[in-house]
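Message: I would love a firmer grasp of how sequence relates to backbone shape in proteins. Thank you; the sequence and its tokens follow:
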Amino acid sequence: MQEKKSFKIPFEVYEIEEYKTEDEFMFALVELYKLMIEQLYSFCNHKYQDQNGEFNTMSRMDSVIAGNVARLIKLSTSFLQNICEGKSEICFILDRCIAETCINLKLILLNPEEKSKQDYIKYSLKTEKKLHDTITKNIESRDGIELPIEKRMKESIESSFNSSGLELKDVNKNFKWKNVYERTKAIGEEFYYKTHYGISSHSIHGNWQEIMFNHLNENENGFQINLSWKKPRPQLIEGSLLQILDTTKIIIENEIVNETIKKELLNNYKLLLAASSLLSFKHEELINNSR
């Protein structure tokens, strides 16, 4: 884990007013993104470590939140790395994963009863259950002859169920954990799904829009292959930053018990949000003035 650092926004308002290029906005946004990731680490330090700096052992239900926070840290770190390497194609893919992790965390935190976490776990095991059923049917079709690879696969799936505190029969088709669109509706972010999450699906699935935009160049006679990386623009990091900040606020409010620490982290969140919003607003002004 990272050691605690003093928190400070690395630029002043008057400096933002003087920005004339997108590179200046990108630099500032990258610095804010670093600070945002540090706040997630700070949350983990306060929530999941003891006085000796060792990770606490927690229940399966508590680990649902902890595991998703760890995933969010790793995804956002990888996102930032690819931003700095100028690989927007990879950033869009990671941004989609970040968005769904934020949606899952919000839904679980805003519905804190144990059943919500249990539904999340059950939904996650549906693919393993289907595979186990398929393997079992294949074995039955051979009059009970089991191949070595089938035995290993079944044991692996059954181990996942045991670690999750569930039996195969507990996972059926009546899932309470809905698809992503229904989850965004449940947390009041249906518009976000339509304007951001749904569009980013192109990058995950390699739809034509993504291929045409990132991997082909069009000319008067048709198309040419494009093997160059697209340079990220500020809008890409702005969206991810604001989405994670909103999730971080909910995490802090619901998971930090110590009021002094909660106040400190929420104050840092407010400063980050104000700086991020100002950068986004000023960048929009730059775009409009350059038309």
Remarks:
- The chain has a mean pLDDT of 91.
